[in-house]
Amino acid sequence: MFGYGTFAARSTLAGLAGLALLAVTPSLASAAPAAPIRPAHAAPAANGSFKTWSAAQRAAGFRLRIPRRTYGLKRRHPILVGKCEVTGKTRKRAVFAEWDGSRGRVLSADQNNSGGACGNIGSAVPLGIYHIRGHRARMFGYCDTHGRPSCKIQNITLALAWHSGQDYYVTFSTNEWRSTLAGFARSLYLRRR
C-alpha cells in the first residue's frame, strides 16, 4: 500500500500530503489539517503507482483529465491511484499526479469520481472564485495566517478545487502565480478511453 504522504515527501508539496482532493466548502477553510490520506485500491482495479496515463486510467476506472500545459514543468514521479478515504465513498477512486521544476516550482492535479472531496484542506485562506471549463472553482492559499507569508506573493502554496458531475478536481501549486494555477487547471482535458 502507498500513501500520498510517502509520494509528496519527495516534493515541495509535502505539507499538502494529507490534503489531497480538498473540499471547496468555506467551512473547511478553517478546519484543522487532515491526517495523510493513504489510498488503496479495491478490486478489480490495480493498486499503486503507474508510469502511463493509460495504465492509471484503467486502474482508476474513470476518464482522467491530463494537462495540455505544464508551464515547463515535468512529471518525474509515477501517477498514484487509490481509493477515496471518505466514509461511504471508499469504492471510488482517487488519482494524483505532479509536475516539478527548478526553484521549487510545482503543479499537481488530484481527481476522483466520488462526486465530492476525499480530504480536507486544513487551515487555508479563501482567495476567490475562478471559472474552469464552465464550472465554479474556489482558490485557497496557505498564507496570511499563523506567521505565513502574504497571499500577494508568488512563493506560497495554492489550491484550486471544483467538480463536474461525479468527478472532483483539485490542482495545487507552489512558487507559481494564481494565474498559472488557473491556466494549468483550464488546460486539463479528458483523456480518450
Give your account of this protein's structure.
With 193 residues, the chain is mainly beta. Helices cover 11% and strands 31% of the residues. The strands form 2 sheets. The protein has an 8-stranded antiparallel sheet with strand order 1-3-4-5-9-8-7-6. A two-stranded antiparallel ribbon has the order 2-10. The two termini are 26 Å apart. Mean pLDDT is 79; it is low at 1-44.
User: How would you sum up the global shape?
Assistant: globular
Number of E strands: 10
Q: What is the helix fraction of residues, given as a range?
A: 10-25%
Low-pLDDT windows of residues: 1-44
First CA to last CA: what distance? 26 Å
- CA radius of gyration is 15 Å
Helices and strands, with pairings:
Layout (H helix, E strand, L loop, with lengths): L3 H5 L39 E3 L2 H8 L4 E3 L11 E5 L9 E8 L5 E7 L12 E8 L2 E7 L15 E8 L2 E8 L3 H9 L1 E3 L3
Antiparallel strand pairs: 1-3, 2-10, 3-4, 4-5, 5-9, 6-7, 7-8, 8-9
Concise overview:
Helices cover 11% and strands 31% of the residues. It has 193 residues and is mainly β. The longest helix has 9 residues, at 178-186.
List keywords for this structure.
globular, 10 strands, eight-stranded antiparallel beta sheet, two-stranded antiparallel ribbon, disordered N terminus, 193 residues, mainly beta
